Structure to design on (375 residues):
């Protein structure tokens, strides 16, 4: 029994309005011997409590490490940003227009069916700009010539052989 | 803090002191509640080994969550709620795992200490046997009835406190306690009759 003002094991309060046979059960239960913890309870509890305290410390230590790693990551990110701004490090290289002035060799042109057609003519460096300008002019004149999207069905019917690339019928 | 001053302090004073960093107050709480909690849990689970574990876990939770206690409820209510929830969880786990404990006691075994209240061996043996029978019947009660009866009749808590611990209305607590007692009365009627007869015989002899 506890000698405390509101300890868990206090003296019994009276049971009012309860049948006598049930009160007898209550007194029978109250007559049961009290169980006590074993001798090693305090030692084991102390041990557990110590490991609890150590565990709390370890978790704090781990948290410190996590914060450290996050700081290092942020530091690297900041250094990279500074490097980009200060040294003008760009990740995109400017795209230079490239034009092959002189083809090294003639490539035999083949159509889709594999039939060899006339080889591509060798262009000299003087001819190349003029040839390109002529190509552009022809594209500008008939911009929809090669476009299947914009080609009218009637025009498709007109040149069926050109579509399959088998040459003239 | 003086040791003798700790003895007269209420549980609420102790937990308040512990919240303010007084470790000796926590030690006093452990001393006060160690046996009552064990007494409650061991009768709820019927297993001394696991009951001690649960009592230890209860105190560890009090230690960990000391700042969560607010003086709106009594400390005893709070700590019994923790112990009751842990016991419930343990029982649920046992059901799932189809638990068999090697430390579960048989008829003749007991691994927890009983308070030596008498030197009369015959009476001790009688009392121990009677206690075994009563405990067996308590363990056969449905869990809700068992818990309510134990808190009321063995732990001597008030109906209001039990209502808070179990988180059920006051009427439900009273109903559970009465139904639990009725079931026990049917099972233990022969014990009560024996006691009554014994008492009458003693009166006649004297």
């Amino acid at each position: 029994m506890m000698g405390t003002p509101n300890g868990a094991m206090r003296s019994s309060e009276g049971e009012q309005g309860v049948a006598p046979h049930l009160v007898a059960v209550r007194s029978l239960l109250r007559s049961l011997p009290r169980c006590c913890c074993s001798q090693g309870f305090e030692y084991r509890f102390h041990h557990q409590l110590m490991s609890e305290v150590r565990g709390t410390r370890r978790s704090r230590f781990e948290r410190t490490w996590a914060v450290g790693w996050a700081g290092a990551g942020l530091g690297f990110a900041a250094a990279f940003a500074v490097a980009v701004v200060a040294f003008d490090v760009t990740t995109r290289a400017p795209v230079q227009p490239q034009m092959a002035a002189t083809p090294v060799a003639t490539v035999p042109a083949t159509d889709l069916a594999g039939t060899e057609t006339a080889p591509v003519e060798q262009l000299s460096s003087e001819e190349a700009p003029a040839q390109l300008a002529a190509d552009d002019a022809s594209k500008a004149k008939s911009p929809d010539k090669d476009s299947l999207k914009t080609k009218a069905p009637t025009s498709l019917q007109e040149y069926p052989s050109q579509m399959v690339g088998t040459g003239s019928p | 803090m003086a040791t003798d001053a700790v003895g007269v302090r209420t549980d609420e004073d102790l937990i308040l002191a512990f919240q303010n960093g007084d470790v000796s107050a926590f030690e006093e709480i452990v001393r006060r509640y160690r046996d009552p909690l064990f007494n409650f849990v061991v009768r709820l689970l019927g297993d001394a080994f696991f009951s001690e574990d649960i009592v230890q876990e209860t105190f560890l939770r009090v230690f960990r969550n000391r700042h969560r206690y607010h003086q709106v409820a009594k400390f005893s209510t709070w700590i019994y709620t923790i112990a009751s929830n842990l016991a419930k969880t343990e029982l649920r786990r046992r059901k799932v795992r189809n638990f068999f404990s090697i430390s579960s006691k048989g008829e003749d075994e007991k691994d927890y200490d009983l308070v030596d209240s008498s030197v009369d061996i015959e009476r001790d043996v009688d009392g121990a046997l009677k206690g075994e029978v009563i405990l067996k019947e308590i363990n056969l009660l449905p869990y809700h009835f068992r818990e309510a009866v134990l808190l009321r009749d063995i732990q001597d808590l008030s109906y209001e406190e039990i209502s808070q611990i179990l988180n059920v209305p006051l009427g439900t607590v009273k109903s559970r306690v009465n139904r639990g007692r009725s079931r026990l009365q049917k099972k233990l009627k022969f014990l009560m009759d024996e006691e009554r007869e014994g008492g009458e015989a003693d009166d006649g002899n004297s």
Q: What stands out?
A: The interface with chain B takes residues 2-13, 18, 21-22, 24-26, 28-39, 41, 44-45, 48-49, 52 of chain A (CB under 8 Å). Confidence is low (pLDDT under 50) at residues 1-13 of chain A. Residues 40-90 of chain A form one domain. The two ends of chain A are 116 Å apart (CA to CA).
